[in-house]
Design a protein that fits this description.
The protein is α+β, with helices and mostly antiparallel strands. The protein has five helices and seven strands, in the order ββββαβαααββα. Strands 1, 4, 5, 6 and 7 form a five-stranded mixed sheet that branches. Strands 2-3 form a two-stranded antiparallel sheet. The radius of gyration is 14 Å and the shape is globular. The chain starts with 6 loop residues before the first strand and ends with a helix.
């Protein structure tokens, strides 16, 4: 599945929910505000903002989805959590916003598509506020049910990083 996605997770920082405020839309045009859409639940917000981040994010997608959402396979998590994928379009990449959304709408499972939040407006400002410094890497933010940012990972998929996300969810 070819998706431009964004995962955001915060590096052990204890930040308030309002420190992360992502507003975007689904393929159906529904406005979504994160982490408010997961109020009272753990969530992982995955953020990708560059073309080089897309294939790295795709490496993460299946193992993260299977462990945290579908609860299938050998290494399933006991923690209930939402997984949000956030493609962020900035600068010249804004032209890909509509085509990427349409491609996802046509190709993705509807259950997955409803958890993809597309961001175009104020994308650069949002990335700066999140602390996304390298747009060539996906970022993964763990948010607790209290709205606090608990942990962040970034970069290529690694089972140890996935385990670190789960450990943050369990704290």
């Amino acid at each position: 599945m070819c998706l431009v996605m964004a995962l955001a997770i915060g590096y052990g920082a204890q930040m308030r929910a309002q420190d992360i405020n992502i507003i975007g839309e689904t393929t159906e045009g529904k406005r979504v505000e994160l982490p408010k859409a997961s109020a009272g639940r753990h969530c992982i917000i995955a953020v990708a903002a560059g073309k080089k981040a897309e294939p790295l994010l795709q490496e993460w997608y299946e193992p993260a989805y299977m462990r945290f959402v579908a609860k299938e396979g050998l290494m399933v998590s006991d923690v209930e959590c939402d997984l949000w994928l956030v493609p962020v379009f900035t600068g010249l990449n804004k032209a890909a916003y509509g085509p990427s959304m349409e491609r996802l709408k046509q190709e993705a499972d509807p259950d997955i598509a409803q958890h993809v939040v597309f961001v175009k407006e104020e994308g650069s400002t949002m990335l700066d506020l999140l602390g996304v410094k390298d747009r060539d890497e996906p970022y993964f933010f763990v948010i607790g049910p209290d709205g606090r940012r608990k942990h962040m990972e970034k970069g290529a998929y690694d089972v140890d990083k996935l385990d670190a996300l789960e450990e943050a969810l369990e704290k």
